[in-house]
Write a structure and sequence with these properties.
- The protein is of the alpha+beta class and 379 residues long.
- Among the domains are: 109 residues, T-fold; 130 residues, ApbE-like domains (T-fold), CATH 3.10.520.10.
- The chain is 29% helix and 25% strand.
- The protein has 10 helices and 17 strands.
- The strands form 4 sheets. Strands 1-2-7-8-11-14-15-16 form an 8-stranded antiparallel sheet. The chain has a 4-stranded antiparallel sheet with strand order 3-6-4-5. A 3-stranded antiparallel sheet has the order 9-10-17, with no helix packed on it.
- Strand 15 and strand 16 form a beta hairpin.
- Helix 2 packs antiparallel against helix 8 and helix 8 runs antiparallel to helix 9.
- The N terminus is likely disordered.
């Protein structure tokens, strides 16, 4: 949930990448003397607001541009191109073609980039994040297919499907040779295309747990390439925020209380960030109950079953939205205690984490030490 805030006046126009402090006044005087028709003199008047739909959800962008450019068509084009590559909901997309192939198919540069990002998150979380979990997601009725849940739980069938969850078995082939993923993850030169080979036609990939965060990053790259530094971008709740607003205030976003009833939607906290990506994953809205048992949409790749723990939502702030997106998903797989243990052993991580969990029917929270100063509790 995004909090609207119109307090954007400040003497310092530094985030426009032009001048700082008192030089701003000199700039405005100079421009006024050169162009008597100049009417806009405050940062708020250069604010641009864009909206749209993509990836089955909505997107919103706010940015400050002294040139008053409208990037709507460019953003729509970027998101359309991403859908054509990695959307499992778009028939004929690169990932859809690969999923329906027998032994693999050619994949493009966008696919490879998100694939490499997924590999990094897979390794960092010891497989808690795994994009080959899609066959299990489909079995439990949470995939892009018709929304049907199993009438009864067949452990043997789940064990059989779990054998398809095998990210490490896939191979990127270039010039007839399989690439080493760890080396590929560290090289700066992007691949334009490769053949992605799989050993079983039933193996399928799903980038939904990282795709929207990664899409936000790609749009942010475009915005920054236009010398716009003050902005926020949101797609389906995944966010990237740039420099602080012209008045120096950080961008502020709400974190929902984990209520399954949308009519009771309220904020649990407000977080302030700059030059960071943010994502939230939760189990409190996408689930179903059968025979008195609650089944969450978060599937543990290691067990083949929906998770059963008291962690309700995980909000992650990191250097990129794609990393935040993947980690939020992984932490929902791990659960509260394992996530806290994971973080305590990795003080070098750039991620800030805010967890909401259930304690005997009461919502409680955990903040990683780095994020405490950025969080404001909502009563």
């Amino acid at each position: 949930m995004i909090l609207a805030d119109s307090r954007i006046f400040r003497k310092n126009l530094g985030p426009f990448g032009l001048f700082q402090g008192d030089l701003c006044l000199a700039l405005l005087i100079l421009l006024s003397s050169c162009s008597p028709k100049l009417e806009k003199t405050t940062p708020d008047e250069f604010k641009q607001v864009l909206h749209g739909q993509a990836q089955g959800t909505t997107w919103n962008i706010v940015y400050y541009d002294i040139r008053e450019r409208n990037f709507q068509k460019s953003v729509d084009s970027i998101l359309q191109r991403i859908d054509e590559s990695i959307s499992t909901y778009q028939e004929g997309s690169v990932i859809d073609t690969w999923n329906n192939s027998d032994s693999g198919s050619l994949v493009d540069a966008l696919f490879i980039e998100v694939y490499i990002n997924s590999w990094k998150s897979y390794k960092a979380t010891f497989g808690a994040f795994d994009p080959t979990v899609m066959p299990l997601v489909s079995y439990w009725g949470f995939g892009p297919e018709k929304y049907v849940h199993p009438e009864s739980i067949n452990k043997l069938e789940i064990d059989s499907i779990s054998e398809l969850v095998s990210f490490e078995s896939l191979e990127l082939i270039v010039n007839g040779k399989a690439l080493d993923m760890d080396s590929l993850s560290n090289q700066g030169k992007p691949l334009k295309a490769a053949f992605l080979r799989k050993r079983d036609p039933r193996i399928k990939l799903d980038f939904n747990a990282i795709g929207q965060g990664w899409s936000v990053d790609k749009v942010a790259e475009f915005i920054e390439s236009k010398d716009v530094k003050v902005f926020f971008i949101e797609i389906g709740g995944e966010i990237v925020a740039g420099n602080p607003k012209p008045d120096g205030e950080l961008w502020r976003f709400g974190i929902d209380k984990p209520e399954s009833d949308l009519s009771k939607r309220a904020l649990n906290a407000v977080i302030s960030i700059r030059n960071r990506g943010m994502a939230t994953s939760g189990n409190y809205r996408k689930f179903y109950e059968q025979n008195g048992i609650k089944y969450s949409h978060t599937i543990n790749p290691h067990t083949g079953f929906p998770v059963k723990h008291n962690l309700l939502s995980a909000t992650v702030v990191s250097t990129t939205a794609s990393e935040a997106d993947a980690l939020a998903t992984a932490f929902m797989v791990m659960g509260k205690d394992s996530t806290i243990s994971y973080l305590s052993k990795r003080s070098y991580m750039s991620a800030y984490v805010y967890l909401i969990y259930d304690s005997a029917g009461v919502f409680k929270t955990y903040n990683s030490p780095q994020i405490k100063s950025n969080i404001s509790k909502v009563d």
